[in-house]
What we know:
Radius of gyration: 25 Å
Distance between the termini: 47 Å
Number of helices: 24
Number of strands: 28
Oligomer: single chain
Amino acid sequence: MYEPSCRHKEPVVARNRNRQPRRYPRLTHPLxxxxxxxxxxxxxxxxxxxxxxxxxxxxxxxxxxxxFGMFSCARATNEMNYVAxxxxxxxxxxxxxxxxxxxxxxxxxxxxxxxxxxxxxxxSYAEVEDTDLIVMWGSNARxxxxxxxxxxxxxxxxxARMYAVDPRRTSTAEWAESWLGLNVGTDIPLAHAVGxxxxxxxxxxxxxxxxxxxxxxxxxxxxxxxxxxxAEKVTGVPxxxxxxxxxxxxxxxxxQLCWTLGITEHHNGTDNVRALINxxxxxxxxxxxxxxxxxxxxxxxxQGGGDMGAIPNxxxxxxxxLDPASRGKFEAAWDVVIQPRYGLNLTEMxxxxxxxxxxxxxxxxxxxxxxxxxxxxxxxxxxxLDHLVVQDIFLTKTAELADVxxxxxxxxxxxxxxxxxxxxxxxxxxxxxxxxxEAREDIDIICELARRLGRDxxxxxxxxxxxxxxSVSPDHFGMTYERLEEHHGIQWPCPSTERLEPxxxxxxxxxxxxxxxxxxxxxxxxxxxPPVDLTDERYPIRLTTGRRxxxxxxxxxxxxxxxxxxxxxxxxxxxxxxxxYGVAAGEEVRVASRRGAVMAPVWIxxxxxxxxxxxxxHFPDEVDTNALTIExxxxxxxxxxxxxxxxxxxxxxxxxxxxx
Length: 660
């Protein structure tokens, strides 16, 4: 967490004037670190696997099973993620397994699970085409989720109205009927003001509230102080715009409330999610076709990774580890005793590295050296491990730190399996090309390590893994490979091989019979909590981060091909701030936070407001944006506050050769 004592430390400057994205080489053979030279060298598979297994055994033998942690991959198949979490729990004896879900949408999972019992979005993509109102809250979906945004455009074409809630006037906001440009970190006051206006205008769906929810009285009391006028002073959104959104959302026959990392990547991300869910409960916009909640996932299989149990608190099929019956079912199927407690999430594992409690990490397809907040700290912690094994398709910055590097196949074209997208749709992935060199499939590699550590697993292929998953996950039981092919993908839950369920979740809440209705959905009264990294005279600008259409995450994959849209990394400022600091477009400046500093050229964006800057994480070798971000984590979900850092802009002196 952020410590006030760090406020006035002089940041370390990360300099890289190379404007070309770094190209990461494809891994084609195993690598091990030579003890004499300290460098990675080529090795045989036998040597690499032996070294990897021996390091894991040494760490857990000396410090116990919880000295091991596993980072699973949101871009790999469901089958790989299932085997990975099984490796952690069965072979290593720990629930310390997680993935980049922690970096982005863990608050969505936590919030949705707390209210509805499952962490998936409640609607299908197609329902956005049939709705009457679309609210894009903290989501530049046109850039970050372009496939989903095509459905949004169809919805608008069919007559839906769209509202965009975002600190920036984004490309998505250009399609909106109304843009609510709130101050970063004020989503809860805005949501509370919308909720209060709905209540005071008599627009709350009292029949649904009384029948299907709990905690309304407490929620109403929590939002009562947040009049539109009071909220305007905190959020910067005009009171009239707040009222307009409230009335539009409450009176729409069908409405979709969509969000992305603008909601989740905050130190109170789960509370932000609960504030939005409250609005759906208040109006009955959930559990019906065309009305629902859509957390838009950024990776092709970030939903599936969690569904497969590659998270520290849930077994496959989203079954709680603390539930004795669920745990007993898996113990019988796997012939193992599962720890009756939650493991460490990704954030907690990095903290455990710092404290010396986590000694060995198996990192599959993730690049935390560049994706974690406060990247210098993350790298230092990874270096401190006794044993780091990285399994990937590229020699990433994280792989460069490893003791053993294992070359894997590209899940989207070199292997068979399934993935699960944001609408809970499981789809087939088929091998199209052979992997290069000595690269092997992820599942085969994990099974080889399991064999060396005492578990002789043999899977004839991805379908056998999937069928094992189906046998322990009721929500996936009805999804045979044949049915997935027949229907071109199936949404969970699918408990039967004889029928398909509705495309939306939680229709039970509308049932007349209380027995069919099931548990009530609770309102979640939450309080406004400003960003941790406060702006002041020394750091007067609020930096928020996001994505661009042409690039992907830390750029390891997208940086290897050209794009006519790509312009590298910039610090984006509004015209007023550029004038204030006396900087011009293209001019290089020093950008400093309380943790680090980078050099970056200026880009002028009229979609920004004074005091707000924007950067991406796509070019960390060129401009390491995460050297600026803060590791202030959501206490419920563990997600860091990537969206709200305090920075300053420093104009650089003109070089002598230029002056002359």
